[in-house]
Design a protein that fits this description.
It contains seven helices and no strands. The protein is mostly helical. The relative contact order is 0.11.
């Protein structure tokens, strides 16, 4: 179904091992073109997630609860719903990893993440808006 996007990603990018893992996840799930594009951009498209994987030298499915919570808490957005969607996408990837035996505990840690990680920093929100006094 969504193979054109995946073929373009493979053709136009030199992927690291973690990005290849995400590509395999997308290929095996037969998502739509739009879903493949969204999920790849969140999980592997040069985002904070892939940068953290590279710096920690481990795949997202090997992150512990604290690392996953910190990741979602610090995800660069001013929208709580975006953070919820990122958590959902990560959860889908972790479910896939459990099915493949990559997470030996069989526990999807995203189910344990508290709602506090969806809070958006006041500083981020403040930078998004201009005070009326800034115009004078």
């Amino acid at each position: 179904m969504g193979t054109n996007v995946l073929n373009e990603i493979k053709k136009n990018n030199k992927l690291n091992v973690y990005q290849n893992n995400k590509l395999l996840f997308l290929e095996e799930n037969n998502f739509s073109e739009n879903t493949n594009s969204q999920y790849f951009n969140i999980l592997a498209g040069g985002t904070i997630i892939n940068a953290l994987e590279l710096s920690k030298e481990k795949d997202l499915y090997d992150f512990n609860l604290e690392e996953l919570t910190d990741l979602i808490s610090s995800y660069p957005t001013t929208n709580r719903n975006t953070k919820r969607f990122v958590k959902y996408v990560i959860g889908r990837y972790l479910d896939y990893a459990i099915e493949r035996g990559l997470i030996t505990t069989g526990i999807n840690l995203t189910t344990l993440i508290s709602n506090e990680c969806f809070n958006v920093s006041d500083n981020i929100l403040k930078n998004k808006y201009i005070e009326l006094s800034d115009f004078y």
